[in-house]
Amino acid sequence: MVDLKLLYQDLVRFETELWSAVDARLRANCALQLTWFEVMRVLGRRGGCRVLDIAGEFGITAGGTSKVVDRLEAAGYCRRRANPDDRRSSIIQLTPTGHRVVTKAEKVFEDELETRVGSVLPERSLEQLATSLADLRAAHRLSARQEPS
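RE: above sequence
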């Protein structure tokens, strides 16, 4: 029988180690921290969105997300424009500089994931891991919706 406490420990520790390794590589090669890169990837994929959309994607607060967006905007990687559908919010989009940086960082990100994960586990194990993690996340989201507030 699998020791769930040990599994938890390994999963959390690996996530921390992986985050640190990817972050260090992005900082060294692109002068970009992983937190910024993650938000920029969302902006690039969506072509523009609200702070609430980004926060929802990561399951974090709008306040924390807004602070990251403020820093990205100050660095020249994104800009806010008026939201035509809601005057209370803005649409955030990558700038041309932001697009260039995230494109470069994407390659660094993929290389580091290949080094740390893809080259370690066989394809079948990676597929099983991906399926298992998706199942666990879906079960968590379902149970969170069913919990009383």
